[in-house]
Design goal:
10 helices, Surface presentation of antigens (SPOA), Chemotaxis protein chec, four-stranded antiparallel β-sheet, alpha+beta, 36% helix, 331 residues, six-stranded antiparallel β-sheet, 2 domains
Length: 331
């Protein structure tokens, strides 16, 4: 679809033509010439726009889940959102990473290969400080990580991978496991330098600290599941979800769900003094007569009226009436 010019742009164009600043014949020649679009083979676009949109939606969900998880775990203000989703060569991603940072390398079983989650040191140390009882200060000492600090961060980031698994389960069931924590990106050779990767950048704020969390997904690792990232496939799967016979099976399983059923013989009010002096064989007077129907509760909600009796030598009740819900009319 051609671009629509505003009235101001049309007036400026007419003015330039009338003053001789622009030549109409030259404009026609430019339109007749073939337009050439430069293509960099080192930046091969191997992901379609549809797949990029799907990855964006998955990680927007991941950002929401991670915000909730870290807010509860760190007990401080946390805000995470997707800032950008780009595809670029792995070499370019490594060059963009700071010289000293927190690189969480994990294996997304059953997919073959490894992903990496780069966490800005300001964010990582704010998390660590909160977990150790601090105010969440961003102390950057990434070069001097102790063994205890490394262990704590490993456990924390493993929990974030559980959230990542939940975000991806609409597409594929993965079980990401932490492989290692690296601090120098030069020592991290995930794939070949020219391999195309998708980098999801998450803008993160924890308390007073802010920074970026970058998730790097190599094309060669997720190539086998790329067809599942198509919107058309998602729509087909949604249609297939409602198969004939599904609802009867669901109803059958629902009938097996346990419910608490109780019968109320009556109520009574006594003082704490009377309660403390209760003894065996004492009689408590209830607020209803023997011939009055008993109240039957299902999951602590009044549902039926019944009369007491015995069945095969056991105490039992017989349902006599179904109680109407509030607001229902007898028509």
């Amino acid at each position: 679809m051609a671009d629509v010019l505003s009235q101001g742009e049309i007036d400026a164009l007419l003015s330039a033509l009338s003053t001789g600043e622009m030549d109409a014949e030259e404009l026609k020649k430019e339109e007749s010439q073939k337009k050439i679009k430069l293509y960099d083979f080192k930046r091969a676009l191997r992901f379609s726009k549809d797949q990029i949109r799907s990855l964006t939606r998955i990680h927007e969900n991941f950002a929401r889940l991670l915000t909730t998880q870290l807010s509860a775990h760190l007990r401080t203000y946390v805000q995470i959102s997707v800032a950008s989703v780009d595809q670029l060569p792995y070499e370019e991603f490594i060059r963009s990473v700071p010289k000293m940072t927190i690189l969480n390398v994990f294996e997304p079983y059953p997919l073959e290969g490894r992903f990496v989650m780069e966490v800005n040191p300001n964010i990582a140390y704010a998390m660590l400080d909160r977990m150790l009882g601090g105010q969440g200060e961003a102390l950057n000492k990434v070069e001097n990580l102790t063994e205890i600090e490394t262990k704590i961060l490993t456990q924390l980031f493993q929990r974030t991978l559980d959230t990542l698994r939940e975000a991806w389960e609409s597409v594929v069931d993965i079980d990401p496991m932490m492989d290692e924590i690296e601090v120098n990106p030069q020592f991290l050779q995930l794939v070949s330098p020219n391999e195309t990767v998708v980098v999801i950048s998450l803008s993160t704020t924890i308390g007073e600290a802010s920074g970026m969390i970058n998730i790097c997904l190599p094309h060669v690792v997720i190539e086998s599941i790329l067809p599942k990232l198509s919107i058309h496939l998602w729509m087909q799967q949604k249609k297939k979800d409602h198969q004939p016979g599904e609802y009867p099976a669901l109803e059958k399983n629902l009938k097996k769900a346990p419910l608490n059923l109780s019968v109320e013989l009556g109520k009574s009010q006594i003082t704490i003094q009377e309660f403390l002096h209760l003894r065996e064989n004492d009689v408590i007077e209830l607020d209803q007569l023997i011939e009055d129907p008993l109240l039957v509760l299902v999951a602590d909600q009044p549902k039926y009226l019944a009369q007491p009796g015995k069945f095969k030598g056991n105490l039992a009740v017989q349902i006599t009436e179904v109680m109407e819900k509030e607001g229902e009319d007898n028509e």
